[in-house]
Predict the structure.
Amino acid sequence: MMTSTSETPLRPAQASPGEALIQMRQLRKVYRKRNEEFLAVSDVSMDIHEGDMVSLVGPSGCGKSTLLKILAGLHEHDGGTLQIGGPNNVFNPGRDVGMVFQQPVLLKWRTILDNVLLPADILGLNKKAATARAHELLDMVGLTGFADKLPYELSGGMQQRAAIARALIHDPKLVLMDEPFGALDALTREKMNLEMLRIWGETKKTFVVVTHSIQEAVFLGTHCAVLTAGPARMADFFAIDLPTPRHLLLKTQNEFGEYVRRIYDLLGVD
Ligand SMILES: Nc1ncnc2c1ncn2[C@@H]1O[C@H](COP(=O)(O)OP(=O)(O)OP(=O)(O)O)[C@@H](O)[C@H]1O
């Protein structure tokens, strides 16, 4: 369990079974440099339950990555409360978070298998068990037969699949993705959206995904948080009640368009 408030970081939580995995209340983050202060995140409140797929969408600079870093335990927040896990579901950010970034950031001298195994090596997990799991994950992300290749031998989309496998190797409770498909061409991105939904469905893990794309936010999410910049704040957080499993043709449906319109309205896009 990880609990922190602005006044008492890491105070024990009073969570009980059935409560949300993540509870944020009025979360706030201010970056400080000498005498300057910059409000990067404010008024962010949401409950995220186990197995949710939450998309964070908003314009550049609205604090999406900052929020992800707070969830990953990389940044402290300055106001509000954040509780992850509970007494019966202890959450350790060093062990229970898997991260995927916009670029796959694979080590070019390690094979794909060894790249996937990196977090397991760092955490000192059993090598044999981790290697077996790495092969299973490579199968799951569609990279069967690529274990012994080096990163340069894979396309951008394939490298990002390897990065997703790496994020899952230590069986994290929470998977955080920062614009994971932002560097891919439009068609590969759509295919990767479908792949990610399949992987999320198979792992039944909790995913939080940052995206600039309103369509992607609606397509991927069971829930969506819309953030705005200047001033930083959360404009809305809502469930996306669209049929699952999702298919690309859903994007042509009125009900999909209604969610997209709702986000355009919140962001003030005409
Ligand atoms: N370490 C830092 N020190 C000072 N200001 C920062 C720092 N990191 C981010 N910021 C500022 O905080 C605001 C939010 O940044 P953040 O990276 O969270 O936004 P974002 O929504 O993820 O943006 P983008 O979509 O462009 O990646 C920005 O104005 C940014 O300049």
Q: What stands out?
A: The longest helix spans residues 186-203. The domain at 50-73+92-267 is CATH 3.40.50.300 (Rossmann fold). Strands lie at 2-5, 22-33, 36-48, 53-57, 79-84, 97-100, 174-178, 206-211, 223-228, 233-239. The first strand starts at residue 2 and ends at 5.
